[in-house]
Amino acid sequence: MSTGGTLAGALAPRRLRQRRPPSKTQLYTLLFLMVLFWAYNFVVVKTAIQHLPGMVMVGLRIALATLFIVPYYWSRGPHHVEWSELPRLMLIGALGVSVNQFFFVLGIERTSVAHAAITVGLSPMIVLAMSSWVGHERPSARKIVGMAVALGGVLFIQLSKGGDSRATLLGDFCIFLSIVSFAIFTVFGKHMTESHGGAVVNTWAYVGGTLLFAPLALWQGWGFDFSTVPGTVWLGILYMAVFPSVLSYLIFYWALTHIPASRVSAFSYLNPFLATLFAILMLGESLSPAFITGGLLVLLGVFVTERG
């Protein structure tokens, strides 16, 4: 099956998903693409933030994502969403999409990719803890060991590089806030996506995010000379809006309807590994033995957690 066919099957109506559950190959191929899009986003954001104010970049990304997802949303109608459900839909969605991207951009602007990657590596731990706290899952010893091994690989990769003068405590804290908001989105949004589907949840998240960030983007962009922004940066904004913002979130929430939240989130352990790999290929960083060792630990941890 082609990639397009696989994606179409992933985003098919819920009644079809129930009749024809995805194969493991389909499921894990899409999850890997999701992580690939998110990992490359580290490089794109780090490059774009050098040319655009942070709030302007977030506002443009969310507004463009809204333009892409709304037609898809209407094409799948009618949608039976009660007015009383909209505040919760927009709140949970805004936490996981808009607020998550807001703090991620603020963090990546104020810290190094290495520190951002190590903080993002904490995401599955927070999701598992939150999911266990609300009674959605009971973590097995194997899952805990697998996550610990993967996180140890992330720590080994990043700490082996030594100190980084580009990292700041504020930037690291902003990245941490971004993964906390995403964990809330993952755990508390599971019931809503099972009831309405990922397209509904994400569409209302981006609509709410556009309304929220448009005034901030206009305020920070007032008087800014946009003619100085290279064309590659505008392509990067388009990439942010389509791939990590729309496609990845739709894949993510679709996967939640088939496997537990902590297992989906475990794939985010690949984010630091792939983001560092992209940095090596695109930013000229060297491939050290420590990186290879840590990367193998990350992959082993993901495998053990998934098998748990």
Description:
This protein has 308 residues and is mostly helical. It has a domain at 24-143 and 165-258. It is 78% helix and 0% strand. Helix 4 packs antiparallel against helix 11 (198-221) and helix 4 crosses helix 12. The radius of gyration is 19 Å and the shape is globular. The two termini are 28 Å apart. The model is unreliable at 1-19 (pLDDT under 50).
Annotate the secondary structure layout.
Blueprint: H1 3-10, H2 14-19, H3 24-48, H4 54-75, H5 86-110, H6 113-120, H7 123-133, H8 141-159, H9 169-188, H10 190-196, H11 198-221, H12 231-256, H13 261-266, H14 270-283, H15 289-307
Helix pairs in contact: 3-12, 3-14, 4-5, 4-11, 4-12, 5-9, 5-11, 6-8, 6-9, 6-14, 7-9, 8-15, 10-11
- Give the helices and strands as they follow along the chain: HHHHHHHHHHHHHHH
Taking all Cα atoms into account, the compactness measure Rg is 19 Å
Helix content: over 70%
Sheet with the most strands? Answer: none
* Distance N to C terminus: 28 Å
Mean pLDDT: 78
Low-confidence stretches: 1-19
Count of extended strands: 0
Shape: globular
Tally of individual helices: 15
Structural class based on helices, strands and sheet pairing: mainly alpha
Tell me the β content: under 5%
